Amino acid sequence: MAVGSLLLLCVVISWPRDAQSLYIDFVCNKTVREALNIVSQMESDLLDCDDVATLPRAVQLPCTALHVASWGNKSLQEKRGDLVASLRLLIEGVKSASALNQTACATSVLRKLQHNVNNYLLILAHLDLSGAVESPVLSCVPRSTRSLGTVLLAYNRLLSGKLEHFMDNLSDSSDDAAAQERERQEQTIYTSTHDALDTSQYCKKYKEEKMEDV
Q1: pLDDT tens-digit readout, 20-78
Q2: Can you state the angle between helices 104-125 and 148-158, rounded to 10 degrees?
Q3: Which of 57, 63, 124, 205 has its CA 20 to 30 A from that of 74?
Q4: Who's near 178: CB < 8 A, 6+ residues apart?
Q5: What are the structural domains of the chain?
């Protein structure tokens, strides 16, 4: 499941229709999101590595602290910007560490991490959110570490914390928008000609189609 989801995301630009369906699955289906989170797999790989507990260069950690009140006051655009800023910070540090001489085992873990972060950035970039576009801004003064285990732990906290809250916010907002649009002509998101994914009705439509398949 995890490998299949990862491969589909890697070819998103080549097959936009498949990617569109995958974006919908990602936002509306927590099981799909759990499959894409391969941190436990990378942590298992790390246990098999010898003498790679310390990276040759420090990596800045993402902003994982989630203050529910302040998070709730942010727009969807601001929340995406918060996540994107942290993921970009992390991936730049991972790239720098990967470029230095180290064991093949450590390089493999760092490459998996880099590809995984890129997948999340790709998904976030293709969400068509309402409101003015916000530039990615870090919500903390980032800490640094040379421990690869600590890097993976912080990454997992970001995915299970802020990202999951953001997905819940998207699902809630799509339900609200769908209720407001109930009297208008329903348009299916699967025939959209836009590259981005419109969040106004997709989860409601997704749930209805899943129920029809049962």
Answers
A1: 677 788 888 899 899 999 999 999 999 888 766 788 899 999 999 999 888 989 999 99
A2: 20
A3: 205
A4: 200, 201, 204, 205
A5: 38-213 (1.20.1250.10)
